[in-house]
Amino acid sequence: MKTNVKKLALVLFTLGTVALGCKKEDEVQPASPAAIAQDGTNDQVSKKGYTVTSLYIKKVGTTEEGTNEADKFKGWSFLFHDKGELLAITAEGEQILGKWSSKEGERETITIDFGTITPFNLLNNTWVVTKKTDLSKTMEDRDESDGTTASVVFEK
């Protein structure tokens, strides 16, 4: 009986040691937005984000030039994650998480959605890419229902 108890204890000890020492390699968790913002080493995220350098919104039929809303995003960097997450961050670590998607074709479009968070909701739109370089994207939209036109420029 004593031998069986010793064998059982040895088996349990061995199983416990093996179980604690093993970890599944396929359970890699994606980096959190905080981790991405802190070190920028996630290879799925642009190492240097974009900034909004211009955001004009203008009603058609008015004599107004339109207003440049880009100052509302001063100090914010936008990281377009390849799985549809759009992270807006500041150097101080403040973060806003949104979504984005793109569609290739005759007219490339980028859809941005930050929900109702002000002022980020100004960027909510399906934008038509009118100019694209390695360092910038210029996008425009025209709302036929009310005649509003908008343009935004993201630069690295």
Structure description:
This protein has a single domain, classed as Lipocalin, CATH 2.40.128. A 9-stranded antiparallel sheet has the order 2-1-9-8-7-6-5-4-3. 17% of the residues lie in helices and 38% in strands.
List the helices and strands and how they pair.
Layout: H1 2-21, H2 33-39, E1 51-59, E2 67-68, E3 76-80, E4 85-90, E5 95-103, E6 109-113, E7 125-132, E8 136-143, E9 148-155
Antiparallel strand pairs: 1-2, 1-9, 3-4, 4-5, 5-6, 6-7, 7-8, 8-9
Could you name the key traits of this structure?
156 residues; alpha+beta; Lipocalin; 9-stranded antiparallel β-sheet; 9 strands; globular
Largest sheet: 9 strands, antiparallel
Tell me the name of the CATH class.
Mainly Beta
The number of distinct structural domains comes to: 1
Could you give the count of β-strands?
9
User: Terminal Cα separation, in Å?
Assistant: 74 Å
Strand order, sheet with most strands: 2-1-9-8-7-6-5-4-3
- DSSP summary: helix tally: 2
Compact overview of the structure:
With 156 residues, the protein is of the alpha+beta class. It contains two helices and nine strands. About 28% of the residues have low confidence.
